[in-house]
């Protein structure tokens, strides 16, 4: 009988403190009009921005004449650098992954709201050469996560600039 009450009290305390599971929430408080996202065809970050804007019920348009805001995303780059090596063998133990892009934001009257700036995010991960195939799939998942994280940050910046 004590366990259900303890569980109930723990649940109430966690919900009262604002606890959310990792990844819960996302970009939902977006107050934007019609947005045109300009990018290269194979931009993983631009695809993530579009997906998150759609989830936030923002109208995405294909024509600049219909857009209230024009978000330009160009120069996406992905880097993988060696973070550390084993001192005894000289083999890679850890990599640093960095994903970045240049963004700018203008309104329909061609006024600059965000001048061209570079944004990036990075994460390191341990590398095990004995599980190389698993490491490459882990790297792909981390890259997708970095794109989603960067997209959420871009949308927050756009939302803040559009409210000024």
Structure description:
Helix content is 36%, strand content 32%. A hairpin with a 6-residue loop joins strand 2 and strand 3. The longest helix has 32 residues. It is flat, with a radius of gyration of 21 Å.
Structural topology:
Layout: H1 2-16, E1 35-39, H2 44-55, E2 69-85, E3 92-107, E4 112-126, H3 132-163
Parallel strand pairs: 1-2
Antiparallel strand pairs: 2-3, 3-4
Structural class: alpha+beta
Distance between the termini: 55 Å
Kindly identify the CATH topology.
Double Stranded RNA Binding Domain
Count the beta strands: 4
Corresponding CATH architecture: 2-Layer Sandwich
Spatial arrangement of strands, main beta sheet: 1-2-3-4
Rg: 21 Å
Low-pLDDT ranges: none
Binned strand content: 25-35%
Specify the CATH class: Alpha Beta
The portion of residues assigned to helices is 25-40%
């Amino acid at each position: 009988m004590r366990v259900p009450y303890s569980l109930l009290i723990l649940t109430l305390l966690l919900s009262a403190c604002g606890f959310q599971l990792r990844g819960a929430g996302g970009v939902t408080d977006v107050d934007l009009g019609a947005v045109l996202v300009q990018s290269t065809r194979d931009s993983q970050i631009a695809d993530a921005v579009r997906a998150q804007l759609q989830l936030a019920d923002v109208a995405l348009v294909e024509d600049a004449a219909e857009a209230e805001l024009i978000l330009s995303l160009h120069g996406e780059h992905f880097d993988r650098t060696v973070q550390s090596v084993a001192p005894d063998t000289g083999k890679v133990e850890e990599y640093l992954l960095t994903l970045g892009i240049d963004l700018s934001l203008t309104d329909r009257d061609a006024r600059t709201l965000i001048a061209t700036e570079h944004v990036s995010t990075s994460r390191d991960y341990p590398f095990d050469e004995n599980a190389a195939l698993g490491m490459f799939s882990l790297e792909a998942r981390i890259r997708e996560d970095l794109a989603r994280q960067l997209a959420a940050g871009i949308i927050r910046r756009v939302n803040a600039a559009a409210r000024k």
